[in-house]
Amino acid sequence: MGAVTTDDTGAVTADGTGAVTADGTGAVTADGTVDGAAGDTVGDAAGRAERADRVPKQDRSRATRQRLLEAAVACLAEHGWAGSTVSVVAERAGVSRGAAQHHFPTREDLFTAAVEYVAEERSTALRALFPQGAAGDRRAVVAALVDLYTGPLFRAALHLWVAASNEEQLRGRVTELEARVGRETHRIAVDLLAADETRPGVRETVQGLLDMARGLGLANLLTDDAARRDKVVAQWGALLEEALG
Fold first, then answer.
1. Residue 70 vs residues 11, 84, 96, 113, 155: alpha-carbon distances, Å
2. Other CB atoms closer than 10 Å to residue 198's CB: what's the count?
3. What residue ranges in the chain does DSSP mark as E strands?
4. pLDDT band at residue 228, thresholds of 50, 70 and 90?
5. Would you give the distance in Å from CA 48 to the centre of its chain?
6. Phi-psi region of 23 (alpha: psi -120 to 50; beta: other; left: phi over 0)
7. Model-level pTM?
8. pLDDT band at 50, cuts 50/70/90?
9. What percent of the chain is helix, strand and coil (3-state, nearest 5)?
10. Exposed, middle or buried: residue 14 (CB in 10 Å: 0-12, 13-18, 19+)?
11. Which of 114, 130, 173, 195 is disulfide-compatible with 72, CB 3.0–4.6 A?
12. From the CA atom positions of the chain, what is the Rg in Å?
Protein backbone atom coordinates (compact mmCIF):
# COMPACT_ATOMS: atom_id res chain seq x y z
CA MET A 1 0.00 0.00 0.00
CA GLY A 2 1.16 3.51 -0.71
CA ALA A 3 3.60 2.33 -3.35
CA VAL A 4 4.05 4.40 -6.49
CA THR A 5 5.14 2.84 -9.75
CA THR A 6 6.35 4.23 -13.05
CA ASP A 7 5.19 3.14 -16.48
CA ASP A 8 7.49 2.58 -19.41
CA THR A 9 7.49 6.30 -20.29
CA GLY A 10 9.09 7.24 -17.02
CA ALA A 11 6.02 9.15 -15.77
CA VAL A 12 4.76 8.57 -12.26
CA THR A 13 1.36 6.91 -11.81
CA ALA A 14 -1.00 6.73 -8.85
CA ASP A 15 -1.78 3.66 -6.87
CA GLY A 16 -5.11 2.96 -5.28
CA THR A 17 -4.67 5.59 -2.57
CA GLY A 18 -4.98 8.40 -5.09
CA ALA A 19 -1.74 10.08 -3.94
CA VAL A 20 0.40 11.07 -6.88
CA THR A 21 3.83 12.62 -6.62
CA ALA A 22 5.37 14.93 -9.21
CA ASP A 23 7.79 13.80 -11.84
CA GLY A 24 10.88 15.74 -12.72
CA THR A 25 8.95 18.55 -14.38
CA GLY A 26 7.74 19.96 -11.09
CA ALA A 27 4.05 19.34 -11.80
CA VAL A 28 1.31 19.81 -9.22
CA THR A 29 0.60 16.68 -7.20
CA ALA A 30 -2.88 15.25 -6.80
CA ASP A 31 -2.84 15.74 -3.03
CA GLY A 32 -2.62 19.51 -3.47
CA THR A 33 1.13 20.05 -2.99
CA VAL A 34 3.12 22.14 -5.45
CA ASP A 35 6.59 21.45 -6.64
CA GLY A 36 9.16 23.47 -8.54
CA ALA A 37 8.40 25.50 -11.65
CA ALA A 38 4.76 24.45 -11.74
CA GLY A 39 4.22 26.05 -8.34
CA ASP A 40 5.62 29.34 -9.63
CA THR A 41 3.29 29.17 -12.64
CA VAL A 42 0.23 28.52 -10.52
CA GLY A 43 1.20 31.32 -8.12
CA ASP A 44 1.62 33.79 -10.97
CA ALA A 45 -1.76 32.82 -12.39
CA ALA A 46 -3.43 33.32 -9.02
CA GLY A 47 -1.82 36.75 -8.67
CA ARG A 48 -2.99 37.79 -12.11
CA ALA A 49 -6.51 36.61 -11.33
CA GLU A 50 -6.53 38.57 -8.07
CA ARG A 51 -5.32 41.75 -9.79
CA ALA A 52 -7.85 41.30 -12.61
CA ASP A 53 -10.63 40.97 -10.03
CA ARG A 54 -9.45 44.01 -8.06
CA VAL A 55 -9.28 46.49 -10.96
CA PRO A 56 -12.94 46.13 -12.04
CA LYS A 57 -13.99 46.59 -8.40
CA GLN A 58 -12.05 49.85 -8.24
CA ASP A 59 -13.64 50.96 -11.51
CA ARG A 60 -17.09 50.11 -10.21
CA SER A 61 -16.43 52.03 -7.01
CA ARG A 62 -15.37 55.14 -8.93
CA ALA A 63 -18.40 54.86 -11.19
CA THR A 64 -20.73 54.52 -8.21
CA ARG A 65 -19.19 57.57 -6.53
CA GLN A 66 -19.60 59.65 -9.68
CA ARG A 67 -23.25 58.60 -10.12
CA LEU A 68 -23.95 59.61 -6.54
CA LEU A 69 -22.32 63.01 -6.98
CA GLU A 70 -24.21 63.75 -10.19
CA ALA A 71 -27.50 62.56 -8.67
CA ALA A 72 -26.93 64.70 -5.57
CA VAL A 73 -26.47 67.85 -7.64
CA ALA A 74 -29.54 67.08 -9.76
CA CYS A 75 -31.68 66.42 -6.65
CA LEU A 76 -30.44 69.55 -4.91
CA ALA A 77 -31.21 71.67 -7.98
CA GLU A 78 -34.69 70.17 -8.40
CA HIS A 79 -35.87 69.56 -4.83
CA GLY A 80 -33.74 71.82 -2.64
CA TRP A 81 -32.01 70.82 0.58
CA ALA A 82 -35.12 69.66 2.42
CA GLY A 83 -36.16 67.25 -0.34
CA SER A 84 -32.71 65.87 -1.07
CA THR A 85 -32.13 63.06 1.39
CA VAL A 86 -29.47 60.39 1.03
CA SER A 87 -32.19 57.86 0.22
CA VAL A 88 -33.58 60.04 -2.59
CA VAL A 89 -30.11 60.52 -4.07
CA ALA A 90 -29.25 56.82 -3.78
CA GLU A 91 -32.47 55.86 -5.56
CA ARG A 92 -31.80 58.33 -8.36
CA ALA A 93 -28.24 57.03 -8.72
CA GLY A 94 -29.46 53.43 -8.80
CA VAL A 95 -27.53 52.29 -5.73
CA SER A 96 -28.47 51.19 -2.22
CA ARG A 97 -28.49 53.58 0.72
CA GLY A 98 -25.73 51.49 2.28
CA ALA A 99 -23.55 51.92 -0.80
CA ALA A 100 -24.15 55.67 -0.69
CA GLN A 101 -23.14 55.86 2.96
CA HIS A 102 -20.05 53.77 2.26
CA HIS A 103 -18.79 56.55 -0.01
CA PHE A 104 -20.26 59.47 1.95
CA PRO A 105 -20.91 58.73 5.63
CA THR A 106 -23.03 61.85 6.20
CA ARG A 107 -25.49 63.92 4.19
CA GLU A 108 -23.20 66.94 4.50
CA ASP A 109 -20.28 64.92 3.07
CA LEU A 110 -22.37 63.94 0.06
CA PHE A 111 -23.68 67.37 -0.90
CA THR A 112 -20.54 69.42 -0.33
CA ALA A 113 -18.58 66.85 -2.35
CA ALA A 114 -21.22 66.95 -5.08
CA VAL A 115 -21.13 70.73 -5.55
CA GLU A 116 -17.32 70.71 -5.44
CA TYR A 117 -17.17 67.93 -8.02
CA VAL A 118 -19.41 69.70 -10.49
CA ALA A 119 -17.66 73.03 -9.89
CA GLU A 120 -14.37 71.41 -10.84
CA GLU A 121 -15.98 69.84 -13.89
CA ARG A 122 -17.39 73.20 -15.00
CA SER A 123 -14.02 74.89 -14.49
CA THR A 124 -12.41 72.25 -16.67
CA ALA A 125 -15.10 72.72 -19.30
CA LEU A 126 -14.64 76.49 -19.23
CA ARG A 127 -10.92 76.21 -19.82
CA ALA A 128 -11.58 73.73 -22.61
CA LEU A 129 -13.64 76.37 -24.43
CA PHE A 130 -10.48 78.46 -24.76
CA PRO A 131 -7.64 75.91 -24.82
CA GLN A 132 -5.06 78.51 -25.88
CA GLY A 133 -5.69 80.59 -22.76
CA ALA A 134 -6.59 84.24 -23.31
CA ALA A 135 -9.40 84.60 -25.82
CA GLY A 136 -9.53 87.29 -28.49
CA ASP A 137 -13.25 87.86 -27.96
CA ARG A 138 -13.81 89.06 -24.41
CA ARG A 139 -17.56 89.06 -24.91
CA ALA A 140 -17.38 85.29 -25.47
CA VAL A 141 -15.49 84.96 -22.19
CA VAL A 142 -18.12 87.02 -20.38
CA ALA A 143 -20.88 84.83 -21.83
CA ALA A 144 -19.05 81.64 -20.77
CA LEU A 145 -18.55 82.96 -17.24
CA VAL A 146 -22.22 83.94 -16.98
CA ASP A 147 -23.15 80.41 -18.05
CA LEU A 148 -21.41 79.14 -14.92
CA TYR A 149 -24.04 80.90 -12.85
CA THR A 150 -27.14 80.02 -14.83
CA GLY A 151 -26.91 76.22 -14.91
CA PRO A 152 -27.85 73.46 -12.45
CA LEU A 153 -24.56 73.85 -10.56
CA PHE A 154 -25.42 77.36 -9.40
CA ARG A 155 -28.98 76.35 -8.53
CA ALA A 156 -27.70 73.43 -6.47
CA ALA A 157 -25.03 75.55 -4.80
CA LEU A 158 -27.61 78.18 -3.91
CA HIS A 159 -29.74 75.61 -2.08
CA LEU A 160 -26.63 74.48 -0.24
CA TRP A 161 -25.79 78.07 0.78
CA VAL A 162 -29.31 78.65 2.11
CA ALA A 163 -29.11 75.43 4.13
CA ALA A 164 -25.65 76.39 5.43
CA SER A 165 -26.98 79.74 6.68
CA ASN A 166 -29.28 77.83 9.03
CA GLU A 167 -27.14 74.79 9.90
CA GLU A 168 -24.00 75.38 11.92
CA GLN A 169 -22.51 71.99 11.05
CA LEU A 170 -22.75 72.72 7.34
CA ARG A 171 -21.81 76.42 7.35
CA GLY A 172 -18.04 76.12 7.81
CA ARG A 173 -17.65 73.48 5.12
CA VAL A 174 -19.76 75.36 2.56
CA THR A 175 -18.02 78.67 3.32
CA GLU A 176 -14.63 77.06 2.75
CA LEU A 177 -15.83 75.41 -0.45
CA GLU A 178 -17.31 78.64 -1.81
CA ALA A 179 -14.10 80.55 -1.09
CA ARG A 180 -12.01 77.94 -2.92
CA VAL A 181 -14.34 77.75 -5.92
CA GLY A 182 -14.50 81.54 -6.04
CA ARG A 183 -10.71 81.87 -6.11
CA GLU A 184 -10.45 79.32 -8.91
CA THR A 185 -13.16 81.04 -10.96
CA HIS A 186 -11.41 84.38 -10.48
CA ARG A 187 -8.10 82.92 -11.69
CA ILE A 188 -9.79 81.46 -14.76
CA ALA A 189 -11.44 84.79 -15.54
CA VAL A 190 -8.15 86.67 -15.23
CA ASP A 191 -6.39 84.20 -17.53
CA LEU A 192 -9.11 84.15 -20.18
CA LEU A 193 -9.54 87.92 -20.20
CA ALA A 194 -5.77 88.50 -20.31
CA ALA A 195 -6.29 90.92 -17.44
CA ASP A 196 -3.24 92.60 -15.88
CA GLU A 197 -4.10 92.79 -12.20
CA THR A 198 -1.02 94.88 -11.45
CA ARG A 199 -2.91 97.80 -12.97
CA PRO A 200 -5.11 99.76 -10.53
CA GLY A 201 -8.75 98.74 -10.62
CA VAL A 202 -8.36 95.67 -12.84
CA ARG A 203 -8.80 93.13 -10.04
CA GLU A 204 -11.98 94.89 -8.90
CA THR A 205 -13.24 94.99 -12.50
CA VAL A 206 -12.84 91.23 -12.88
CA GLN A 207 -14.48 90.60 -9.52
CA GLY A 208 -17.32 92.92 -10.49
CA LEU A 209 -17.86 90.80 -13.60
CA LEU A 210 -18.19 87.67 -11.47
CA ASP A 211 -20.54 89.39 -9.04
CA MET A 212 -22.65 90.53 -11.99
CA ALA A 213 -22.71 86.99 -13.35
CA ARG A 214 -23.90 85.70 -9.98
CA GLY A 215 -26.68 88.28 -9.98
CA LEU A 216 -27.78 87.17 -13.44
CA GLY A 217 -27.86 83.62 -12.16
CA LEU A 218 -30.16 84.65 -9.32
CA ALA A 219 -32.45 86.51 -11.73
CA ASN A 220 -32.68 83.38 -13.86
CA LEU A 221 -33.94 81.17 -11.02
CA LEU A 222 -37.58 82.20 -11.28
CA THR A 223 -37.95 83.17 -14.94
CA ASP A 224 -36.09 82.75 -18.20
CA ASP A 225 -33.93 85.86 -18.27
CA ALA A 226 -32.06 85.07 -21.50
CA ALA A 227 -33.15 88.10 -23.53
CA ARG A 228 -32.10 90.66 -20.92
CA ARG A 229 -29.02 88.67 -20.05
CA ASP A 230 -27.73 88.78 -23.64
CA LYS A 231 -27.87 92.58 -23.62
CA VAL A 232 -26.08 92.79 -20.28
CA VAL A 233 -23.37 90.39 -21.48
CA ALA A 234 -22.80 92.50 -24.60
CA GLN A 235 -22.50 95.66 -22.53
CA TRP A 236 -20.08 94.07 -20.08
CA GLY A 237 -17.95 92.83 -22.97
CA ALA A 238 -17.67 96.41 -24.26
CA LEU A 239 -16.90 97.77 -20.79
CA LEU A 240 -14.16 95.21 -20.26
CA GLU A 241 -12.48 96.07 -23.54
CA GLU A 242 -12.28 99.66 -22.39
CA ALA A 243 -11.27 98.89 -18.80
CA LEU A 244 -8.70 96.19 -19.53
CA GLY A 245 -7.23 97.69 -22.68
1. 63, 13, 15, 10, 14
2. 7
3. none
4. confident
5. 29
6. beta
7. 0.67
8. low
9. 70, 0, 30
10. middle
11. 114
12. 31
